[in-house]
């Protein structure tokens, strides 16, 4: 019989050294508006799925999409030190998707 052994000690052995740097925390602060705007767009799309979409739903989606585009623009125009740690937003899906 094979025993399954956890490797938690090996994974968490260096946990004290994995803390984010001040630059990485700053980059996260710059990314938060993009993430929140993306959540707003998803919420607007989910609300529109609940019933036959109407003009209010379309407005809500357009507003959320503009908010997301603005947040992405601000992240793209962030200082180089922030963008280097922020991953340039490449992990985010396209706005029109």
Mean pLDDT: 79
How would you spell out the order of helices and strands?
HHHH
Point out poorly predicted stretches: 88-94
As a percent range, the share of strand residues is: under 5%
- What spatial form do the alpha-carbon principal axes imply? flat
Q: Kindly report how far apart the N and C termini lie.
A: 49 Å
Give me the count of strands: 0
Q: From the helix content, strand content and strand pairing, which structural class follows? A: mainly alpha
Radius of gyration: 20 Å
Helix segment tally: 4
Tell me what you see in this structure.
The model is unreliable at 88-94 (pLDDT under 50). Helix 2 packs antiparallel against helix 3 (55-76) and helix 2 (22-49) crosses helix 4 (80-86). The chain has helices spanning 8-12, 22-49, 55-76, 80-86. The protein is mainly alpha-helical and 97 residues long. The radius of gyration is 20 Å and the shape is flat. It contains 4 helices and no strands.
How would you summarize this macromolecular structure in one to three sentences?
With 97 residues, this protein is mainly alpha-helical. It has helices spanning 8-12, 22-49, 55-76, 80-86.
What's the arrangement of secondary structure elements?
Layout: H1 8-12, H2 22-49, H3 55-76, H4 80-86
Helix pairs in contact: 2-3, 2-4
Features:
97 residues, mainly alpha, 4 helices, 0% strand, flat
């Amino acid at each position: 019989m094979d025993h399954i052994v956890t490797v938690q000690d090996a994974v968490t052995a260096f946990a004290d050294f994995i803390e984010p740097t001040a630059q990485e925390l700053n980059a996260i602060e710059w990314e938060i508006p993009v993430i929140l705007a993306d959540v707003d767009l998803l919420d607007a799309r989910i609300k529109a799925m609940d019933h036959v979409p109407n003009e209010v739903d379309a407005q809500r989606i357009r507003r959320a999409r503009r908010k997301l585009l603005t947040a992405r623009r601000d992240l793209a125009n962030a200082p180089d030190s922030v963008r280097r740690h922020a991953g340039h937003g490449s992990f985010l899906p396209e706005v029109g998707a």
